[in-house]
Design a protein that fits this description.
Elements: H1 3-24, H2 39-43, H3 52-75, H4 81-107, H5 124-147, H6 151-162, H7 174-187, H8 191-194, H9 197-207, H10 216-226, H11 231-248, H12 275-293, H13 299-312, H14 318-326, H15 328-331, H16 346-361, H17 372-382, H18 391-406, H19 411-419, H20 431-470
Helix pairs in contact: 3-4, 4-5, 4-6, 5-6, 5-7, 7-10, 9-11, 10-12, 11-13, 12-13, 13-16, 16-18, 16-19, 17-18, 18-19
């Protein structure tokens, strides 16, 4: 966590906690206090704090009450969702303050007069300890709510957790948060609830993620989303990874222009993740993304996956680079051994860009790993005279052929060709809104059908009654 950010928010954090502490304490006032309304007399009274045991008991009772409220709040959501949401947020705040209060009391005992022994916060370490247990318990409560099918309460709780001020570093609960997001996208019964993963991932990475000892939960979440049967989740994972690589890959991505792939992603560069985590994400998700780039049924998702592979190139290791170059005829669209070199579509254009970038970053001797069938197609198109906007692709193919013949000396030429590339094509699949619209239409049709069924039954009953009367 950035120490500067901690110092900036530290005073506000403690003013909230200390205020909550003072308001939560019982006041043992002398008998003279009863009946008096005088502020001066009130200020002279001795205010005594609860013991650590009493605060612990109070916190346990409060958290027990809150946990019993949650299922009832979930049931009341359809009756009054705004009131239910406000109650959930209030309960979440109480839960956080209760945990932090107990932590402060444990680490800073203050028996006696509160005004004479104010709580001291002398170090960032003490500051961290005071709220860490609260965050861990809070994140665990979100997972428990999911297991108890309290999806709407859990959703608001996760919103609250990820919306906390940045002085609350979430690095110690990243694993739990990733598990909760994955659980939502896989098990939430409504599509609208599952689509919240996009919002939560944006909030999570905008906060920043530092070095994590256990990277498995983060990787597992992305791998699950990339393999998800719903295209919405695959699209969210691809676009989130693109934003992560785009905001951290200045050494690689910034060298290249706004080509076709740059129009495919959202231009949100506010994400932050450590280089170590980013490299681990790239190495562990490369195969999954490559799988989406080739056989996925959605052409738009294939384009997203291919664009992500382009951004991945500066971060992949040497073994992955060699494996990609050796299998280029089966991965790259339009360049396979059985394919005719057609560069009309975005996938073929991205394939050329991907191969060109790989050639720039790999050692010159690895270029020999590219299958001859790929080179034949590149050479065939490089010698063609397509005209129009495909002239730029032709130039890339010619630069690749030159690189094959001349080695490192031709890399500058290829880089210059890529820098002057102006091919653009907007590609923004809005799977979520499309699916929601279809479901809404189906719901309306079902409602109309039920409406007519009711009247049909009523008419039938009236006809039967009329026949009975006639007889």
């Amino acid at each position: 966590m950035d120490s500067i950010a901690i110092q900036e928010d530290k005073q506000d954090f403690y003013s909230v906690l200390d205020g909550s502490l003072q308001s939560s304490l019982s006041m043992k006032i002398s008998e003279n206090f009863e009946g008096t309304k005088d502020d001066a007399a009130l200020s002279n009274q001795k205010v005594c704090a609860l013991s650590a045991e009493e605060v612990e008991e109070f916190s346990e009772c409060l958290e027990g009450l809150i946990s019993k409220l949650y299922p009832t709040i979930e049931l009341c959501w359809k009756l009054h969702h705004q009131l239910s949401k406000k109650l959930t947020v209030t309960s979440a705040e109480c839960f956080m303050y209760s945990r932090c209060l107990f932590s402060i009391v444990q680490k800073s005992p203050f028996d006696g007069d509160v005004s004479e022994k104010p709580i001291q916060h002398d170090s960032n370490d003490q500051f961290t300890i005071n709220w860490r247990s609260g965050l861990e318990g809070f994140a665990g409560a979100v997972v428990s709510l999911q297991e108890n099918q309290c999806w709407q309460v859990a959703s608001v709780m996760l919103d609250y957790l990820l919306g906390l001020p940045h002085c609350f570093c979430l690095d110690n609960v990243i694993g739990t948060v990733c598990f909760a997001i994955k659980h939502f996208c896989c098990n939430a019964p409504k599509l609208s609830w599952r689509l919240q993963t996009d919002k939560w991932l944006s909030l999570l990475f905008k906060r920043g993620i530092g070095i994590q000892e256990d990277k498995f939960p983060l990787v597992d979440m992305f791998c699950t989303m990339l393999s998800h049967p719903e295209p919405e989740q695959r699209s969210i994972a691809l676009q989130t990874l693109r934003r992560l690589v785009g905001s951290n890959g200045n050494a690689g991505v910034a060298k290249f222009p706004s080509t076709l792939r740059d129009e495919i992603t959202a231009s949100d560069l506010g994400f932050s993740v450590s280089e170590m985590i980013l490299s681990h994400l790239v190495s562990t998700t490369w195969d999954r993304v490559a799988t989406l780039a080739y056989p996925d049924q959605s052409m738009l998702l294939r384009a997203h996956a291919m664009a992500l592979l382009v951004d991945y190139i500066p971060f992949i290791d040497h073994i992955q680079m060699q494996s990609f170059l050796g299998a280029a005829d089966s991965v790259l669209c339009g360049l396979g051994k059985l394919a005719y070199p057609i560069f009309e579509g975005p996938l073929a254009l991205l394939s050329i860009t991907l191969l060109a970038k790989a050639c720039l970053y790999c050692p010159v001797e690895d270029i020999a790993l590219i299958p001859q069938s790929v080179w034949k197609n590149i050479e065939a198109f490089g010698m063609s005279k397509a005209g129009g906007r495909l002239d730029e692709v032709e130039k890339i193919c010619q630069a690749l052929c030159k690189l094959k013949m001349e080695g490192d000396d031709a890399k500058e030429i290829l880089k210059e060709v890529l820098s002057s590339n102006s091919m653009t094509k907007q590609c923004n699949p809005d799977f979520g809104s499309t699916r929601e619209s279809i479901l809404q239409v189906l719901a309306d049709l079902t409602y109309v059908r039920s409406y007519f069924d009711i009247f049909s039954k009523r008419i039938d009953q009236e006809d039967i009654v009329s026949l009975d009367c006639c007889h």
